[in-house]
Amino acid sequence: MPWEAIATAIGVIVSLIYVGIQLRQNNKNLRIATQHAITDSIGQTYRNLQTPGVAKLFLVGIKNFDDLEGEDSLRFSAIMGEIYRNYEDIFVQWINNALDESAWKGQRSAMLDILSQPGSRQWWKTRRHWYNENFVNYLETELETYGHTYNDNQD
What we know:
By secondary structure, the protein is mostly helical. It has one domain. The protein has helices at 2-48, 52-63, 70-95, 101-115, 118-127, 133-145. It starts with a helix and ends in a 10-residue tail after the last helix. Mean pLDDT is 83; it is low at 149-155.
């Protein structure tokens, strides 16, 4: 009888180890899938910026949003809205441990690079209410200490 109990216990332990391995593999696969989805989403947004008129509008807008009027203001807001909705999603993936820390660092830097520009900050003040409160608080806290700014003369 004790041998049967020991065999059963060993079977349970082996099963638990197997489940643990499967969970670890599933977590790894989830992170990989998340990274691919982020790359696709952000990539499409940035590909849209390659269109000459869109690129010019984006550069003007990040320098001084208040200079944009009418359709240009609306288009710039749509561009920034798409970009920051993507970053909000990436942030949520990161805080829920679905995104690797190293992948987050790169996305965080890109997100802050854009929003550290004067026109981007002007836009953000008018649209911050569109976003999740946790995302807004995180972003604004990070911006307080983020020092990089765009320079037309960079090579």
